[in-house]
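> run fold MFS transporter
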Amino acid sequence: MDQTLRTRQKRDFFLFILAGAFLGFYTGLYEPTFNNYLSDVFNIGEVARGALEFPRELPGFLVVFFMGLLIFLPDVRIALIANLILGLGLLGLGFLSPSFSWLVLWMIIWSIGAHISMPLESSIGVSLSKPGEVGKRLGQLGAVKTAASLVGFLIVWFGFKYMNLSYSTIFALAGLSTFAACVCLLMMEPRKSKTKRHRLLLKRKYTLFYWLNVLFGARKQIFLTFAPWVLIKVYDQPVTTFALLGLVGTVTGIGFRALLGRAIDRFGERTIISLESIMLVLVCLGYGFAGNLGLGSLAIWLVYACYVGDQLLFACNMARATYLNKIADSPDDLTPTLSMGLTLDHIVAMTIPFFGGLLWLKMGYQYVFLVAALIAFANLFAALSIKTDKAQTQEKTVGA
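> ok
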C-alpha cells in the first residue's frame, strides 16, 4: 500500500510539474506583452495605469471568499477551475476587447482565475513534498516554470521583431496553454482532507505571516505597475525589450530558483527574506535614480539590471509559504491561511498603484521607487522577527 501511495504521489508530482510548465509558458507570453498592449492599443497614461490596478487586483482581495465558496473541493480541483477561468479571461483580452470597458471586464475575469490559483500552487506543492524537502520541491517547480516561460519570451521577442505578431495571437497561445495545464490537473488524483477545512481562517499566531504578505503586496505592486511603465514612458522601450529582459531573467532564474529552494531548507526563512529585503532596497534605488547618477546612455543598462534583479527576487516569496508550513497548527490551515495572506496582500495592492500614479504625476517616478525602498526596509525588520524552533522545522503536509 505504501509503495502504491508513493507511486501515485510521484505520478501526481510529475503531472503537477507538467501543469506548471504550461503555466510558465503562459507567463512568458503574457508578462512582456500586457503593459505594451495597454500603451499601444488603449494609449493610457500613468495615473490611469495606476488606477487600473484597483479592478485588476480586486479579485486578489476577494480570493479568501472565492476559496471559501470552493473549499469543499480538493485543492487540485479548485486549481483546475481557476485555470479554466484564467484561460477564458486571456481569450477575452485577445479577441473580445473592442473598447476599454471590455478590456477591464476580461482583465477582471483573468484576475479571478490567476488569484485563486496563487495560494494553491504552494499548498499543492507542499502536499506532494517529503518532510524536510518542501523548499527543494517548490524550487524545482519554480525552476520548471521559469524554464518554460523562456519559450514564451522567445516567441514574443521573435514574433514581434520578425513576424509582425499580433497581441491577439499572443493571448490566444497563452489561453490555450492554461487549458493544457487544466488537462494535467484533471489527471491528478484529488485527495480530500480528512478533517473539516475552514472557509475563513484568521489566527493571531499567523500575524507575522500576514504582515509579511502585506509588505510583499505593497512592494510587488509598485514594481508590477510602474517598473514596466518607466521603461515604456521614460525610456521609450518596445515590447521586444521586455521579451529580452524576460529571457535574461528566465535563463538566470532557472538555476536561481532551484538553488533558492535548497537555500531556504538549509539557512531558513529569516535569512533568505532578510537578504531579499536588503537587495530590494538597492534595486529600488537603482531603478528610480539611475537617470540621476550621471551615467548618460549607460543609465538604462542599470535599469535593465534592476528589472531583472527584481524578477529574481520575486522567487523569494516561496520562503513565506515554507515559513507558514513550519508554524501551522495543522496541515489543513495551509490553504486558507495562504488565501487570507493573499487577501491582506491585496488590500494594499489595490490602492498603492493609484497613489503611486499621483505621486509620479506630482513629483516624478523616482519618488515612487523611493517609497518602495522604504517598504523594503520595513520588510527587513519584519523578517528579523521570524523565529522557527526545531519542532516547527519538521514540515507538515496538506491533502491536495
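The radius of gyration is 20 Å.
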